[in-house]
Amino acid sequence: MGHVARPRSLSRSRREREFQPERFLNPQTRDPMRFAFGFGRRICPGRHFADNSLFIIVAHVLHTLSIEPPLDRDGQPVQLEFRYTTDMVVS
């Protein structure tokens, strides 16, 4: 039986659910790579492969796809409603 643990260090911010990219520019912010793949003797041997694969996938998507909001009948962009869910796929 397995489990997933969420480190308490991720929930230090009072506004953790808000989009704040500047919070990652703080030099005191811990690097997720330091604890996401384990440490010491039990560190994940595929951590570099996983990190590089994710980078290539995101770069490929950003390069080849046009990510834009949908258009209404008049051709104007539709204002999107952002919400947090626990689902893996949101339709």
From TrEMBL:
<feature type="region of interest" description="Disordered">
    <location>
        <begin position="1"/>
        <end position="25"/>
    </location>
</feature>
<dbReference type="Pfam" id="PF00067">
    <property type="entry name" value="p450"/>
</dbReference>
<protein>
    <recommendedName>
        <fullName>Cytochrome P450</fullName>
    </recommendedName>
</protein>
<dbReference type="GO" id="GO:0020037">
    <property type="term" value="F:heme binding"/>
</dbReference>
<keyword id="KW-0503">Monooxygenase</keyword>
<dbReference type="GO" id="GO:0016705">
    <property type="term" value="F:oxidoreductase activity, acting on paired donors, with incorporation or reduction of molecular oxygen"/>
</dbReference>
<comment type="pathway">
    <text>Secondary metabolite biosynthesis.</text>
</comment>
<keyword id="KW-0560">Oxidoreductase</keyword>
<dbReference type="InterPro" id="IPR017972">
    <property type="entry name" value="Cyt_P450_CS"/>
</dbReference>
<keyword id="KW-0408">Iron</keyword>
<dbReference type="GO" id="GO:0005506">
    <property type="term" value="F:iron ion binding"/>
</dbReference>
<keyword id="KW-0349">Heme</keyword>
<dbReference type="GO" id="GO:0004497">
    <property type="term" value="F:monooxygenase activity"/>
</dbReference>
<dbReference type="InterPro" id="IPR036396">
    <property type="entry name" value="Cyt_P450_sf"/>
</dbReference>
<dbReference type="InterPro" id="IPR001128">
    <property type="entry name" value="Cyt_P450"/>
</dbReference>
<dbReference type="GO" id="GO:0016020">
    <property type="term" value="C:membrane"/>
</dbReference>
<comment type="similarity">
    <text>Belongs to the cytochrome P450 family.</text>
</comment>
<keyword id="KW-1133">Transmembrane helix</keyword>
<keyword id="KW-0479">Metal-binding</keyword>
<keyword id="KW-0812">Transmembrane</keyword>
<dbReference type="InterPro" id="IPR002401">
    <property type="entry name" value="Cyt_P450_E_grp-I"/>
</dbReference>
<feature type="binding site" description="axial binding residue">
    <location>
        <position position="44"/>
    </location>
    <ligand>
        <name>heme</name>
    </ligand>
</feature>
<feature type="compositionally biased region" description="Basic residues">
    <location>
        <begin position="1"/>
        <end position="12"/>
    </location>
</feature>
<dbReference type="InterPro" id="IPR050364">
    <property type="entry name" value="Cytochrome_P450_fung"/>
</dbReference>
<keyword id="KW-0472">Membrane</keyword>
